């Protein structure tokens, strides 16, 4: 949760859909955008969606990443050459892959999406922003899918307008870094995309390079 002061001076509490550390996005006094809702089932009337950091717009809601990718797949803005896809398909040991892409003439493609917001150096964005045992588990399971004869991609979706390239924050989580490297060595491919962000919405942007690229597409 976050306490937000509105333009009229009223203070409200907003839900924060972000399980990470939010490093660089939690400074007091920052300009933020929150979204109201009238759902009686929700405890809070507002959700924190955007923040301005050093002139850049940043998407706070990590759950938005899958929605952005789903819309891009549906419209073929993001096209991996597959005829169909399904979200949240069970695989591995109690996991769900974000998207399973299928085609009668091709091996299944397991697509895992990671929302990226951390930037500690101008133009460079990194994942993760905190330790993520779940993220490391996903990389290991994607590698297993490749070894079983399928294809797998991890897609780093950067919800920042100032991103130039993407890297793995191995100093923050060495275990994830090792799992990422092992997955790449096993044949898991990596693709990175930025986003176009304004107060009306977020959509898939241009492809970004991966620093120290291995198996990038």
Written overview of the protein:
- The protein is an alpha/beta fold.
- It folds into 2 domains: 2-59, OB fold (Dihydrolipoamide Acetyltransferase, E2P) (Beta Barrel); 64-208, Trna Endonuclease, Chain: A, domain 1 (3-Layer(aba) Sandwich).
- It has 3 helices and 14 strands.
- The protein has a 6-stranded mixed sheet. Strands 1, 2, 3, 4 and 5 form a 5-stranded mixed sheet that branches. A 3-stranded mixed sheet has the order 9-10-12, with no helix packed on it.
- The chain is globular.
- The N and C termini lie far apart (37 Å).
Summary, kept brief:
The chain has 217 residues and is an alpha/beta fold.
> What helical percentage do the residues reach?
10-25%
Total count of strands: 14
Average pLDDT: 93
CATH class of the largest domain: Alpha Beta
Q: What's the overall geometry?
A: globular
The Cα radius of gyration reads 18 Å
Uncertain segments of ≥5 residues (pLDDT<50)? none
Q: How would you describe the oligomerization state of the chains in this entry?
A: single chain
Under the CATH scheme, which architecture of the largest domain would be assigned? Answer: 3-Layer(aba) Sandwich
Here the CATH topology of the largest domain equals: Trna Endonuclease, Chain: A, domain 1
Quick tags:
six-stranded mixed beta sheet, 3 helices, 41% strand, Trna Endonuclease, Chain: A, domain 1, five-stranded mixed beta sheet, alpha/beta, 217 residues, 14 strands, 2 domains
């Amino acid at each position: 949760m976050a306490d937000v002061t509105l333009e009229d001076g009223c203070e409200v509490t907003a839900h924060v859909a972000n399980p990470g550390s939010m490093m660089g996005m939690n400074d007091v006094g920052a300009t933020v955008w929150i979204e109201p809702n009238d759902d009686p089932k929700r405890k809070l009337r507002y959700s924190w969606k955007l923040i301005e950091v050093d002139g850049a717009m940043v998407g706070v809601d990590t759950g938005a990443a899958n929605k952005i990718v789903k819309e891009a797949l549906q419209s073929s803005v993001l096209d991996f050459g597959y005829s169909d896809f399904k979200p949240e398909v069970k695989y591995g040991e109690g996991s769900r892959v974000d998207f399973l892409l299928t085609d009668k003439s091709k091996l299944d493609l397991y697509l895992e999406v990671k929302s990226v917001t951390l930037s500690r150096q101008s133009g460079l964005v990194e994942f993760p922003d905190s330790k993520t045992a779940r993220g490391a588990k996903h990389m290991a399971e994607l590698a297993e899918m490749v070894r079983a004869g399928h294809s797998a991609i991890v897609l780093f979706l950067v919800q920042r307008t100032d991103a130039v390239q993407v890297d793995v924050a191995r100093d923050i989580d060495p275990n994830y870094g090792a799992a990422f490297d092992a997955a790449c060595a096993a044949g898991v491919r990596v693709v990175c995309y930025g986003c176009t962000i304004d107060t009306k919405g977020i959509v898939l942007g241009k492809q970004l390079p991966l620093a120290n690229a291995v198996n990038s597409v």
